[in-house]
Write a structure and sequence with these properties.
The complex is a heterodimer. Chain A is built from four helices and six strands; from the N terminus they run βαββαβββαα. By secondary structure, chain A is an alpha+beta fold. The model of chain A has no long low-confidence stretch (mean pLDDT about 90). In chain B, about 30% of the residues lie in helices and about 30% in strands. Chain B is built from five helices and eight strands; from the N terminus they run E-E-H-E-E-E-H-E-H-E-H-E-H. The chains are: A alpha+beta, B alpha/beta.
Chain lengths: ~160, ~200
């Protein structure tokens, strides 16, 4: 089934940011990323300086897609939780709803148990916010307006992008 | 599918380079990467084998400029071309906004081109897309080689939908940006069409 276009308004972004800023504190995490399953970064929180967030989002989506494919081969729908243990930093990756991936980076200031516990609660909240976002996107789409900046652009605008 | 972010005022789209093994998909991305201003591109990621064959995908994020105050960003992906990596190709097509088919012009690769084109149609359908409805561009690569098939023959066999097509020699960059621009233009025009 084809995904619907995702449109995020400022109010949606602020709601997501509120949840993940709280989660990064509650879980004693270093950093946190909300990634769309197709590899787009939606939001981030914590110590993100120096991290190539675009690459992180794309590789997270690739990794989730690959393990999702593996899951289907053995008769599972998905593997909703992934944990990667490093020497200093660890990654906890969770599927939230059908479209969103929550990535938590944490070190020995936290623990897997704490992260797992906090992610579970915040994940439900995030799933609800994203579900609303998707409904709004789909409703706009069905009504013939994707709620997009494309409502007003002209062919000239597109041509101008390539005028170099 | 595209992601429109009002908060950061960005439009993000995904373009996938498809085609048979060794046709030059990765070379296209490498050339784009080498010729793009550092501030307009992110890091290029290649998940490849030790012999530099694409194992999962290559990824290159690119900023093209602004439209009505929105930054337009394109995420370019390649698929692994070798036949046995089909499961990976399906995954990479998820959420695609535009497709480039890179054909290998060498006459002995025509069958591989046709097989890959069929495979593209099937894998798109599995994701809920019809090739006829996706912004689509064909690139005839390796035109500089002495064993290249005549252009008209390639067109007749591969461009059944009469989509924009370009001759290219990706190793020296010929036709690479023309292909990308036509695809980006197709993607943006489609988004515009959908919003009306």
């Amino acid at each position: 089934m084809m995904d619907t276009q995702l449109v995020m308004y400022d109010e949606d972004y602020r709601k997501i940011l509120a949840v993940i800023n709280r989660l990064v504190r509650d879980a004693n995490a270093k950093a946190l990323f909300v990634v769309e399953k197709n590899g787009q970064l939606i939001a981030e929180a914590g110590e993100v300086a120096g991290i190539d967030t675009t690459s992180l989002a794309s590789l997270t989506a690739g990794s989730i897609a690959a393990t999702g494919g593996l899951a289907k081969i053995i008769g599972e729908e998905e593997f909703p939780v992934h944990f990667h243990q490093g020497v200093r930093d660890n990654l906890h990756v969770t599927l939230v709803g059908k479209r969103i991936i929550l990535v938590v980076v944490f070190d020995d200031r936290s623990s897997l148990g704490l992260v797992r516990l906090r992610v579970k609660k915040a994940g439900n909240e995030l799933a609800r916010i994203v579900e609303e976002m998707l409904k709004k996107s789909a409703a706009g789409f069905a009504a013939g307006r994707a709620g997009s900046p494309f409502d007003e652009i002209t062919d000239d605008d597109i041509d101008n992008l390539f005028s170099d | 599918m595209s992601f429109i972010n009002y908060s950061s005022r960005e439009i993000n789209c995904k373009i996938v380079y498809y085609g048979p093994g060794l046709c030059g998909k990765t070379t296209n991305l490498q050339f784009i990467y080498s010729k793009t201003n550092p501030e307009l591109k992110g890091r290029m990621i290649s998940l490849a084998t030790e012999t530099e064959r694409t194992l999962f995908f290559d990824f290159l994020p690119l900023a093209l400029g602004q439209i009505r105050g929105f930054k337009t960003r394109f995420h370019l992906y390649t698929v692994p071309g070798q036949v046995f990596y089909d499961a990976s190709r399906k995954l990479i097509l998820k959420g695609v906004d535009g497709v480039v088919f890179v054909a290998d012009s060498q006459i002995e690769r025509m069958e591989a081109n046709l097989e890959s084109m069929d495979n593209l149609k099937i894998n798109l359908l599995e994701q809920g897309y019809e090739l006829e409805k996706v912004p689509f561009v064909i690139q005839y690569n390796k035109r500089d080689l002495p064993n290249a098939a005549p252009l008209e023959e390639m067109r007749r066999q591969l461009n059944l939908l009469s989509v924009p097509d370009f001759e290219a020699s990706a190793t020296v960059g010929k036709g690479v940006f023309e292909t990308l621009k036509a695809t980006a233009r197709g993607v943006l025009s489609e988004l515009k069409r959908l919003s009306h």
